[in-house]
Amino acid sequence: MADKRDFYEVLELEKGASAEDIKKAYRKLARQYHPDVNKGADAESKFKEVKEAYDTLSDDQKRGIYDQYGHVDPNQFGGGGGQDAGGFGDIFDMFFGGGGRRDPNAPQRGNDLQYTMTIEFKEAVFGKETEITIPRTENCDPCNGSGAKPGTKPENCSVCRGTGQQEVVQNTPFGRMVNRRACTNCSGTGKIIKDKCSNCHGAGKVKKQRRITVRIPAGVDEGAQIRLNGEGEGGTRGGPNGDLYIVLRVKSHEFFDRENDDIYCEVPLTFAQAALGDEIEIPTLTEKVKLKIPAGTQTSTYFRLKGKGVPKLRGYGNGDQHVKVTIVTPTSLTDEQKDLLRQFGGLGGSTSVGTDSEEHHESIFDRMKKAFRGD
């Protein structure tokens, strides 16, 4: 684990950062390194690094363990339940005959699966229902997961008598020692299959393509996970299936930006509109609305459209939409327009009405046109 960077360093945070700071840092960096936006060679690896750091630090329990142990697995110190710490189980088995080992024939839960789904910006806002196809391991139908030819069944191993373990007795100067290990005849399963199923060749499982309906709730964001119970790989010996985790990646939008449940956009104003005031039409996520621009509005001023943001994933209502206005500098003026601006400047005004480039203005207009069309 020595090659892993500190998770706080990855998110560019101090160790005492709040939960909100962690969320903001993750959103910023996830947007920066998202493979759909950043085509750099290391973008995907950095995105995964940021995601791993966020998954740990956003969970209070995981963060507490990380703050105490860092990248070192605390199980190696004996803190992990269900695992023999430091191999002590084998030592006790050697001296005292063991006991308490897991039944090799007990039902076993199937593995969890993860599927990464990329969705459009507005699909994350409004939600959607879609179908995906995933490869997964399922119990073999002809043998019902036993691995034995239909009409037959596995038999108890004659060496370990179905326990899955062998005892090796050694006489030492300290006395008689018993060491237990997995049975080499049945590989620790306790069962022998004499006649194997022709469909799965004795494995009890087969690879299949499964089509699953996924319902994405309105208001999800980059990195959100959807858990589908029982849609993971099949269990063993009657054990339950694992779960399927859908990890969402959200594409960026040309006109709208998102911060939590709020939406941000930038619209252009002419110098006359900003100076004299006007009423303009603004595209939102669902409709077009009127926005009053007061006389004397300065460039980079923000206006808020209450309730025009993203539906709250947990709770009621919507966030807001924040509109930033940018004053467009004229680039092609007639002689008459130039004379009028000079007269205006002579009266104490200024002919400098903005600093953005022509290309930037055109880009704003293009993005706004697409937003009006609902793109």
Count of alpha and pi helical runs: 9
Spans of at least 5 consecutive residues with low confidence? 74-100, 349-358
CATH superfamily of the domain at 106-140 and 205-252: Urease metallochaperone UreE, N-terminal domain
Rough outline = elongated
The CATH topology of the domain at 106-140 and 205-252 corresponds to HSP40/DNAj peptide-binding domain
The main pleated sheet reads as: 4 strands, mixed
| Integer average pLDDT | 81
Task: Specify the structural class.
Answer: alpha+beta
What does this structure look like?
The protein contains nine helices and 15 strands. The chain has 375 residues and is α+β, with helices and mostly antiparallel strands. Among the domains are: 70 residues, DnaJ domain (Helix Hairpins, Orthogonal Bundle), CATH 1.10.287; 83 residues, Urease metallochaperone UreE, N-terminal domain (HSP40/DNAj peptide-binding domain, Sandwich), CATH 2.60.260; 72 residues, Urease metallochaperone UreE, N-terminal domain (HSP40/DNAj peptide-binding domain, Sandwich). The strands form six sheets. The protein has a four-stranded mixed β-sheet. A three-stranded mixed β-sheet has the order 1-9-8. α2 packs antiparallel against α3. About 10% of the residues have low confidence.
